[in-house]
Specification:
Layout lengths: L4 E2 L6 E5 L9 H18 L3 E6 L19 H12 L3 E5 L10 H6 L2 E3 L3 E5 L2 E6 L9 H10 L2 H8 L3 H18 L11 H12 L4 E4 L5 E6 L12 E6 L7 E5 L4 E5 L2
Parallel strand pairs: 1-6, 2-3, 3-4, 4-5, 7-8, 8-10
Antiparallel strand pairs: 2-11, 6-7, 9-10, 11-12
Length: 262
């Protein structure tokens, strides 16, 4: 885990976005979505100090030694522009883009995270993660994730010709996407709510922010019985996605809001 402190004087707005799934379901629809994302990023460049991309930016991504997936030039160009202007970029790998390696950090000067992190900003404590593989159950996926994260698996996949490799990967991604499209919020039975409560038993956080679930949610979590006196209600926030909701969160220095880009 990583923990940092920032004072209000160094904070403008901090934005959190997740689950663009660029590349799906086809080139034409992905391009329309990409242009909308770029327009949003352009609209926040004057007041953003940091941007957190919380995973599954691409429906699939794999970096070969000498090649990367085709497309996405508008998004990559805009992110490069924002980074060059001094906006800090953070990137969480998700279950669809866990095979981001060194290309994006090098070209976009962004910081990459593969596990949950914590931050303290202007006295508020944040717990940040994409969300896949967290919480109870789903042992099949957790095993597959462990396999895919192995250096041996990555080396073997890199030996496959990109034309075949990308075709296989697109099939996997389509199957995985179907499993995250159940759009009913289950309240206390949500696995990320359960996970958040387990986190809060050990340490208080004001905001626990995730992607992955594809459903924008801002849900109050009562203080843990083991919490310290004076610690208020925590909030579980899921960022939703940019296929149907176009949702994001913004921290303006004192509080965070879940919003929608129209």
């Amino acid at each position: 885990m990583i923990s940092r402190n920032l004072s209000l004087r160094s904070v403008a707005n901090i934005y959190f976005l997740s689950d663009f799934h660029l590349g799906a379901p086809d080139y034409e629809k992905s391009l329309v979505r990409e242009k909308k994302i770029v327009a949003f990023l352009d609209s926040i460049k004057k007041d953003a100090s940091e941007i957190y991309l919380m995973g599954d930016v691409f429906d699939f991504w794999f970096e070969y030694g000498k090649a990367i997936p085709k497309g996405f030039v508008r998004l990559l160009g805009k992110l490069a522009e924002l980074s060059d202007s001094g906006i800090k970029l953070h990137y969480f790998t998700g279950n669809h883009d866990m095979w981001v390696f060194d290309y994006l950090p090098k070209e976009l000067n962004l910081t990459i995270y593969r596990k949950p992190i914590t931050r303290e900003i202007n006295g508020k404590k944040f717990y940040l993660a994409h969300g896949d593989g967290l919480g109870p159950g789903d042992y099949g996926y957790k095993f597959i994730k462990m396999v895919f994260a192995s250096k041996i698996c990555q080396w073997l996949f890199a030996r496959i010709h990109p034309n075949l490799g990308m075709s296989i990967a697109q099939f996997w991604s389509g199957q995985s996407r179907k499993l995250t499209q159940e759009l009913h919020f289950h309240g206390e039975e949500e696995w990320l709510v359960t996970y958040s409560r387990e986190v809060l038993k050990k340490e208080h956080f004001d905001y626990l922010i995730f992607g992955h679930r594809h459903l924008p949610v801002d849900y109050a979590l009562a203080p843990s019985p083991s919490g310290k006196a004076g610690e208020g209600v925590s909030r579980y926030i899921n960022l939703g996605e940019w296929v149907n909701y176009f949702s994001y969160a913004v921290f303006e220095g004192k509080d965070i809001q879940l919003k929608y880009y129209k």
